[in-house]
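Supplementary Note 2. Why include the ligand at all?

Several targets in our set were suspected to adopt different conformations when bound, so apo predictions alone were not considered sufficient. For every target with a known small-molecule partner we therefore ran a joint prediction. The input for S-adenosylmethionine is given below.
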Amino acid sequence: MTDHATYLDAKRALDDRSLNRDVLDRFAAELPPDPEILEVGAGTATMVERLVDWGVIDGGRWVAVDAHADALAAGEDRIGSEVGDASGGVDVEFRVADAFEYASEAAAAGRQFDAVVGCAFFDVVDARPAVDALADVAPLAYAPITYDGETRFAPPDPDDEVVLDRYHRHMREFRPGGPDGAAALAREATVIAEGPSPWRIEPPYENGERVVLAHLLDTVEGAVAETGYDASDWADRRREALDAGRLRYEAANRDLLARLE
Ligand SMILES: C[S@@+](CC[C@H](N)C(=O)[O-])C[C@H]1O[C@@H](n2cnc3c(N)ncnc32)[C@H](O)[C@@H]1O
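The joint prediction is reproduced in token form.
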């Protein structure tokens, strides 16, 4: 299976084209100059680079927190402690930690941020405690690429339904968060902007897309196995389609901008 950091870097271009620009524009409009931002579940820290590249931020401070030390180290190796041009740029701090422990320590120390960012994060955590913890350190959350309950592979396979049902069951019962991550966050916070950010991969595959698809097939197969169902034949057929350049994939995601209270 592809390691976590390689997968996260491979999905960067997919996120670039999937992000909902209206929600991002609203997020940009809410930020003060030189904002202080806490990124939870930062992975390889692609978001801070993206926001600088796209002109959303050009100064301030960004604290990238993730529990996965290797992913964060890959980000730190790539971008170092500053993103932007030599005359200024965004200072970046990397912290290997549980995001909610970090937030409660920061709150206890009196530290506040202008916003929390969590890309592809709010569906892997439980919404209520996440909102409670993060509201102590920031008034605003930008939650792009939050899973919205639907995955489809094509061409159709007779086992799709059972496999994808089990995949969602795994999200609900075997780890924090769940397939209704976007709806759960919308229930627990005050949404001020939202819009779809679907992931779509179709042949011919572009940069990194084979890596993303192979990783997703491994993830689905592994998750489904934990629920007690053997999806290896399904996964083998899907890998054959991938090798043959025929596999198509779509996942529903939602980008949310919410006030935390
Ligand atoms: C799907 S990845 C997304 C990474 C990155 N935001 C991106 O979009 O490329 C979710 C990340 O959240 C991290 N994560 C999940 N729960 C966490 C927690 N409670 N504290 C810190 N990191 C967490 C995982 O380690 C993982 O790197």
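The first strand starts at residue 36 and ends at 40. The two ends are 39 Å apart (CA to CA). Comparable summaries for the other entries are listed in the accompanying table.
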